[in-house]
Amino acid sequence: MEIGISTFVETTPDVRTGEVISHAQRIREVVEEIVLADQVGLDVFGVGEHHREDYAASSPAVILAAAASQTENIRLTSAVTVLSSADPIRVFQDFATLDGISNGRAEIMAGRGSFIESFPLFGYDLRDYEELFDEKLDLLLKLQMSEKITWSGKHRPAIENLGVYPRPVQKPLPIWIGSGGNQESVVRAGLLGLPLVLAIIGGSPLHFAPLVELYKKAAEHAGHDSSKLKVASHSHGFIADDTETAADKFFPPTQYAMNKLGKERGWGPYNRSSFDAARSFEGALYVGDADTVAEKIIHLRKNVGIERFMLHVPVGTMPHEDVMRAIELLGTKVAPKVKEEVARWESVQ
Fold this sequence. Notes:
11 helices, eight-stranded parallel beta barrel, alpha/beta, globular, 12 strands, 349 residues, two-stranded antiparallel sheet, single chain
């Protein structure tokens, strides 16, 4: 069982002061958070790609590379790389470079993305949304398996027996598929034999168990050994020394961020009752003290089969020291308890 962090490097206004920190400051803070996550023994840190004012990470590989030389063990991944609007060759080169700097700790989490700003920015048509992802994933997987490639497609010039460098330390460089939880994406991951990351950010996490089963059946149908394929999740959450403090600190920035997106996407208002329901034992928010969060992760592992859990923190803008404390508690209190219980439980299965 692996435990880690994911972040979108948000720069929304501080709900207490109204201050908006600079992109540069938030990027530097995230590097410090990655270094701390490594120091407290967390397994993985993911940085998501966005191209809008309230997120500072348009280039996750660069941020992760800044932390790579200051860390020793933690795995470093995008969360996600918006592959549909990217050049797969450049993506591969960036993460192969990160793999070299980190001596074999880089991963790519490829996804279609739930935000669309990158499409007009890089000159792509949203009408090609699905086709772009399928084609570019095909190219990325060929780059993963071969130094020299020959490839042709509709949305990128053809390549004829050309080498792509640098080559990564890992053979192959891990490529995960990120999914919001639709059947098509989990079947695609299974058929390709790729590890799967589920964004479990609403409803009951246990409702994702059938998707995990569907993923494994698709993998087996395509001739892959499903027992060797990892399934991960990422969920919003926050940890403090006591549960009420965690909830009271996490709710205001979460409400701001959710209502801001809600206005763009036509969602209803996000209020404290919605928040409190989601942080219940069966909900998708992992908010509380270390024991509360650990028990929810253990419950997820036992009932859904998740082998890697990534706590997405913060949502909105929170004080850097609060985020650092949450990371410290996740690494020193939550992760050991989860791993001990999972090992004990599996030993009697």
